[in-house]
Fold:
Amino acid sequence: MVDWLEHTAQIEVDAPIDLVWSLWSDLEQMPQWMKWIDSVQVLADQPDISRWKLSAAGGFEFNWRSRLIKLLPHQLIQCESVDGLPNRAAVRFYDRGMAGSIVKLTIAYSLPGFWGQWFDHLFVGRVVESTLMADLERFRVYALEAKVKAGEQVKAGEQMG
Structure:
């Protein structure tokens, strides 16, 4: 029996939904804010398939291909593995207008039966949840830096015009 273990984290980002969406939906940039993700490569001939490489604590390395299941601009990115590490993820985006955006990340992965739940509750679950929160915090900083750069480009354009 295989159980799916799920973890969720969310963060508020003081940036407009258009910017937050464009940054996150560029999957190949994810290693810039996701600690365990070494690389993401979207396949040129199949843009709904991407190759992922993850390196975790203890020298564990996992590779898989993921298929984009659902894409609702400014709302949802949902994917699941088609080989390798069994996993699925959903990222939800909430537009808060002038208050910015909320990003909610849910990941699920499978480990074999009882041992998977036991291992997850004792150790892995806490590590995964704290890593997800740290990843979202890095994304928040990444988005704020992009917002500042975009503002500087607008100002420079206004000065030239």
Notes: The longest strand covers residues 60-72. The helical segments are 17-24, 113-160. The beta strands are 2-13, 37-43, 46-56, 60-72, 76-84, 87-95, 101-112.
